[in-house]
Each structure stands twice: as structure tokens, then as C-alpha cells.
Amino acid sequence: MTLHAVCVMLDRKVEKTPKKDNPKVMEDNWWFTAQKFMNEKNFIDCLINIDKDNIPEHVIEKIRSQFLNDPEFKPLRVSKASLAAKGLCEWVIKLEQYHSIVIYIRPKK
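RE: above sequence
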């Protein structure tokens, strides 16, 4: 779930893979997408250099609707599976919070 949220935050397109029970039908596979993304040379650079001042609104809406209200998407809960995932979970949450502040402040500049 955390890596799915990271992919959404970075506006990555989901990879489609054949369904296990029906290989003729393709389905969204966020785990495959995340694995492929993490194997790219620039994975860490993408996290560090995200244009945090210009995150598209559709991305923020997806983050809010799919992850932020989910009780499983909490740093303490995620840390039970992985400390690295905990950090990524916090990263997603903090970027959404930052976006909310930027949207509030931007008109006042």
C-alpha cells in the first residue's frame, strides 16, 4: 500500500499484468509498478526532487481518497512491516500536508 501511494504521489502510470485466474484479462498491478520503479537508477532522486510546490490536484485527491483515511496507512502501523516503508508513508503524508499549506498561502502572496 505504501509503495502504491508513493507511485500515485509521483503520478506514475500503473502497469497492467495478466490476471492470475484469467491470463487473457489485464489488471492494474501497483506492486509490479512499484518494484519496477524502485529498480530504476533515479528512484531516490525522484523522491528527493519532487516538485512539491506543483503537485497536481488529481494526485492529491487520489492520495486523500485512497490512502489518508485508511487505518492501515499510518506510519506506526506501516513500521511493523518495514522501517523504510514507514519513512515513505510519512513522506506521502507530509507532502499532502505541505500541499494543503501551499494552496492556502499561495493566494496571499
